[in-house]
Task: structure prediction
Amino acid sequence: MERIEQLEKFLADNPTDSFLRHALALEHIKRGDDTTARALFEALLEQEPGYVGSYYHLGKLMERIGDSDKAVEWYLKGMEVAKQKGEQHALGELRGAWEELTF
Result:
């Protein structure tokens, strides 16, 4: 839990830091706590919908827990944001994940 505690401490000082929130969600995934990770990713994307990397990880999480429909929703939302921001690499990763799931 050391890394999670460290990230939470940093977040206490800077609660709106999207990078820290994303990193904390990933740490919860590593620990097998998909429920907390999902809540963190959803809150992050609600606050900052332009944080493109979180769409991919949240989509993968939804796939892993068996909610393919939600995974598709997150991938599609992420692709739209990536297009708007001109983030071609992220767009390609999201599109690849979406295609793998839907075709």
